[in-house]
């Protein structure tokens, strides 16, 4: 397949864009990656996603597909000759379970995790971190239910929930460095922590999950650009 | 109606538009099922064990296995009963992606602010939430144009599809909006395609069988808002 047929508009730090790139890699698809700008959205982006004006956008033979989970499912369905195992299972009930947990991540993740960053006092951020850990503990149970003892939410191979949650791992790991609160805790969510390490080591994923240092710098730059004070990890939170 | 592919049970609440989505899908697919009306103040053991994460309706139980989340349920009904009734999602992957995009838009941009209308305390907050909801409906008019491709009145073209069912479940609440807030959510002058859609949708046998009585929804909504307001002032 010629590389010109597939273009992905993205931002390197976006978990949603990372999902789409992981899916493309899993399927062995070549594509042109176009880094857009958060400060100055490209004409192509505005034309391809006029409704939401957001990345990721996958452009296939000139036709845009928007919304990261829609893109991931499209990648799974539109390339029957592509390599790689199906991202969504074939059995209807297993698909429903995968979709349920993907929906859970979508609904709960940002709304629970963002307050860790936006909390104005140390107390607010510690409380928000407690909520994040609770979500991770639910996902720990989900992993048990979905993986059935295998390596991924998708079983032996990477599935929808792996991709949807996996896109967030860079920021998850960076939370402690940026906000001073611990959310990744192998004593509380051992299966999930082990899954995350395995996932990040995959060829399809390596290089896509941004380093903690890079995200720390990015967060500082973004906060400065938005006129927000820097988030200093409070000394008392480290105890 | 034929009993196809095993035992189906739906746990629901008569007023819930999300439950109505599941009922519509089951009806359109010609599936018979046992309906169990839940009491949210006294949730059944079956509900709590079937949906431990959200403890919410609808829950579809198929041969003892629970499926939760209305949009997941509708897709499951389409997948698991593929031979029964019309297909709810298009066969073509690109058309499917378009439908799923608009389904996500409906949930995030229209339903999220609309839900706030019933929960927020001040008139200003309510008005702002309604404004955002109506703005989303304006955009959804374009979505209807794109999904139907001029082939028919529905998002699915000439037959009812996934997005039709997701929006269709909300119809009695859409109609209740004018008596409740004074604003029409779907206004033939502003969004003629959606207004025509709503009319055609309500003519369907499935809709007639399943959609709630609008007056009953209005009374229920008033009760919910009164309860929320009382809870809010008790917390102050």
Describe the structure.
The complex is a heterodimer of chains A (239) and B (236). Chain A is an alpha+beta fold. In chain A, 53% of the residues lie in helices and 7% in strands. Chain A has helices at residues 15-26, 43-48, 68-78, 92-118, 122-147, 160-166, 169-179, 190-201, 212-225; strands spanning 6-10, 32-35, 57-60, 63-66. A four-stranded mixed sheet of chain A has the order 2-1-3-4, covered by helices on one side. In chain A, a hairpin with a 2-residue loop joins β3 (57-60) and β4. The relative contact order of chain A is 0.12. With 236 residues, chain B is of the alpha+beta class. Chain B has ten helices and four strands. Chain B has helices spanning 17-28, 45-50, 70-80, 93-117, 123-148, 162-168, 171-181, 192-203, 205-210, 214-235; strands spanning 8-12, 34-37, 59-62, 65-68. Chain B has a four-stranded mixed sheet with strand order 2-1-3-4, with helices on one face. In chain B, β1 (8-12), α1 (17-28) and β2 (34-37) form a beta-alpha-beta unit. Chain B is globular and about 50 Å long. Classes of the chains: A alpha+beta (239), B alpha+beta (236). Chains A and B meet through β4, α3 and α4 of A and β4, α3, α4 and α5 of B.
The strand line-up of the biggest sheet of chain B is 2-1-3-4
- Greatest chain-chain interface? A-B, 23 and 24 residues
Kindly report the spatial arrangement of strands forming the biggest sheet of chain A. 2-1-3-4
Structure annotation, total helices of chain B: 10
Shape of chain A: globular
Mean pLDDT of chain A: 93
Topology of chain B as a string of helices (H) and strands (E): EHEHEEHHHHHHHH
> Which blocks of ≥5 consecutive residues of chain A have pLDDT under 50?
235-239
Largest sheet of chain A, in brief, is:
4 strands, mixed
Summed over residues and divided by their number, the pLDDT of chain B gives a mean of: 94
The H-and-E topology of chain A, N to C, reads as: EHEHEEHHHHHHH
Strand tally of chain A is: 4
What is the percentage of strand-forming residues of chain A?
Answer: 5-15%
> Which outline of chain B best applies?
globular
Please give the number of β-strands of chain B.
Answer: 4
């Amino acid at each position: 397949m010629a590389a010109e047929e597939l273009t992905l508009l993205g931002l390197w730090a976006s978990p949603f864009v990372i999902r789409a790139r992981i899916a493309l890699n899993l399927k062995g698809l070549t594509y042109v990656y176009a880094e857009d700008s958060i400060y100055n959205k490209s004409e192509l982006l505005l034309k391809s996603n006029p409704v939401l004006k957001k990345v990721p956008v996958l452009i296939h033979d000139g036709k845009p597909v928007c919304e990261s989970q829609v893109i991931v499912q499209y990648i799974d369905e539109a390339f029957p000759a592509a390599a790689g195992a199906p991202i969504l299972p074939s059995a209807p009930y297993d698909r429903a379970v995968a979709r349920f947990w993907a929906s859970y991540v979508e609904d709960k993740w940002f709304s629970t995790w963002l307050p860790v960053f936006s909390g104005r006092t140390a107390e607010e951020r510690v409380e928000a971190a407690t909520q994040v850990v609770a979500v991770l503990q639910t996902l720990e149970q989900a992993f048990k239910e979905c993986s059935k003892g295998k390596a991924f939410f998708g079983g032996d191979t990477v599935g929808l929930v792996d991709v949807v949650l996996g896109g967030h791992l860079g920021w998850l790991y960076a939370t402690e460095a940026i906000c001073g609160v611990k959310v990744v805790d192998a004593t509380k969510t051992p299966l999930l922590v082990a899954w995350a390490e395995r996932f990040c080591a995959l060829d399809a994923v390596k290089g896509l999950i941004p380093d903690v240092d890079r995200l720390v710098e990015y967060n500082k730059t973004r906060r400065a650009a938005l006129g927000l004070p820097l988030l200093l990890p409070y000394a008392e939170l480290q105890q | 109606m034929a009993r196809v592919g095993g035992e189906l049970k739906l746990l629901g609440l008569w007023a819930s538009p999300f439950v109505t989505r599941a009922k519509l899908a089951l009806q359109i697919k010609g599936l018979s099922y046992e309906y169990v009306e839940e009491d949210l103040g006294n949730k059944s053991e079956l509900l709590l064990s079937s949906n431990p994460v959200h403890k919410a309706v609808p829950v579809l139980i198929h041969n003892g296995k629970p499926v939760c989340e209305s949009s997941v349920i509708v897709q499951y009904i389409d997948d698991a009963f593929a031979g029964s009734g019309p297909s709810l999602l298009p066969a073509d992957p690109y058309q499917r992606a378009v439908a799923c995009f608009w389904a996500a838009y409906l949930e995030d941009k229209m339903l999220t602010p609309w839900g706030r209308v019933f929960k927020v305390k001040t008139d200003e907050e309510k008005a702002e939430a309604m404004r955002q909801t109506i703005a989303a409906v304006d955009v959804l008019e374009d979505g209807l144009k794109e999904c139907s491709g001029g082939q028919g009145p529905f998002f699915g073209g000439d037959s009812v599809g996934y997005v039709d069912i997701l929006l269709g479940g909300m119809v009695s609440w859409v109609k209740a909006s004018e008596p409740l807030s004074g604003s029409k959510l779907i206004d033939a002058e502003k969004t003629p395609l959606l207004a025509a859609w709503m009319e055609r949708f309500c003519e369907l046998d499935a809709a007639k069988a399943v959609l709630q009585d609008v007056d009953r929804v209005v009374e229920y909504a008033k009760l919910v808002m009164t309860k929320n307001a009382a809870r809010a002032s008790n917390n102050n």
